[in-house]
Amino acid sequence: MASHRFIPLLILAAACAGEGLPTAPSGDPDASLNAAAAAAPAREQLARRLALALAEPAFRAHLRAQLDTSSHDEGKVRLADLLAVSGGRGLQVLARADGGRALTAGERRASEVIEVYLPVPAHRRAWRGDADLLVGTIGADGEVPVAFDLHGRRVALDPDAPPASPVLAVVPLESELGPGARSRPRLATACVTECGGTGSSVGSLYLTASHLRESFESWLKGKPELEVLVLGQKGASDSLTSYQCAGERGTGAYYFDQNSLDWSGSALIMSRAQLDAYNAQHPGQALRLFFMEDDDTPCQIRANNADLRELITTVDSLVRGYAGGKDVPGGLGSIYQHFAIAQKIYSVVASAIKSNDDLIGNAVEDVVTTERYPGYNWIIKGEDGRTNGYVKLQMR
């Protein structure tokens, strides 16, 4: 069947041997999230002031140059940096456009945790610095976005679709930006194609289709970064650690990029070598497949520990503990099916920036729920046990 093909891509040898990604907290994530909340009252005022400043053609050219030279793949810049470069040119223009009023201390603090960019790809291609521009802002996903034209007039935006005019987003920071920041690299991985073993009795676990009931990201906050984390037993403890991740930042067979509610293709979740290594290290133990929309460092859950644990506990209770999965012999090869999993604790990494990842949910096999969806076999259960989507998993 499949053959082992491994390529060293700046990776520790443990990546396909089941070693987890770093999961130890590096601080208090709630403190970072509270900082973002504190900035919210100033964010709309900053959006309005920026819109007024952008009435000046020279400042629009300055903004265009900063966006064009951004190291981020969506052209993001931190608002504080946009205002400070060129001897604080942006600060001066914002003050001049608002009757000479300098930024308050609160507005300056807010600018440190706000990013500015054109989130809609068509807008990025079309806008070259002209006056056809709106400055939009939104806080948490689900809020109604608002915008200001270059006269400072406030308008409500459609939460479901962008307008024809380009919209410059002024939104809470979701990326590592600023002096010395680098664009996020794709995750290195050892397995590039067909990472299973040989013979008809072995196989690897693949994701081949996915449907979500919402995007978990407003269009004003750019494209979603959907990821699947494989969580399993950490040592001999009752805790979880991450063994693999697939998504937009994965390389080779682990890569998939879902930017709408539906996706189909072939994304490796766990290779045969990884499954064998995990089974050898943790005999009889299952794996959790956890889906999230990642607003921060790729493949690390950055959220509130209590929220994640409550979600896991709720899902486990709903499906009587069968919220895990395990590859078992079946037919001519192996199958991936529901299995009881005891581990519920996962230590969330503290956010270095000010965002909160969306916890989409824990995948559970449809046979342990009352739900069936043609073409799919695992259900994504999220907060309060609600269904946030469904996927198709295959061993092959």
Describe the structure concisely.
The chain is an alpha+beta fold. The protein contains seven helices and 16 strands.
List keywords for this structure.
396 residues, alpha+beta, 24% helix, elongated, disordered N terminus
Characterize the structure shown.
- By secondary structure, this protein is α+β, with helices and mostly antiparallel strands.
- It has helices spanning 29-53, 57-68, 79-97, 105-112, 121-126, 272-281, 305-318, and strands at 77-78, 114-117, 134-137, 146-148, 154-156, 167-172, 205-212, 226-233, 240-247, 262-270, 288-293, 324-330, 333-339, 358-365, 378-381, 387-395.
- An eight-stranded antiparallel sheet has the order 9-8-11-14-15-16-7-10.
- A hairpin with a 5-residue loop joins β15 (378-381) and β16 (387-395).
- α1 packs across α3 (79-97) and α1 packs across α4 (105-112).
- The longest helix is centred in the first third of the chain and has 25 residues, at 29-53.
Element string (H = helix, E = strand): HHEHHEHEEEEEEEEHEHEEEEE
pLDDT average, as an integer?
Answer: 81
| Morphology | elongated
Contiguous low-pLDDT stretches (5 residues minimum) are 1-38, 180-201
Q: Count every beta strand, where a strand is a DSSP E run of 2 or more residues.
A: 16
**Count the helices. How many?**
7
Distance between the termini: 8 Å
β-strand amount: 15-25%
Broad structural category: alpha+beta
Strand neighbour order, sheet with most strands: 9-8-11-14-15-16-7-10
Helix fraction, binned, reads 10-25%
Largest sheet entry: 8 strands, antiparallel
Name the assembly state: single chain
Rg estimate, integer Å: 23 Å
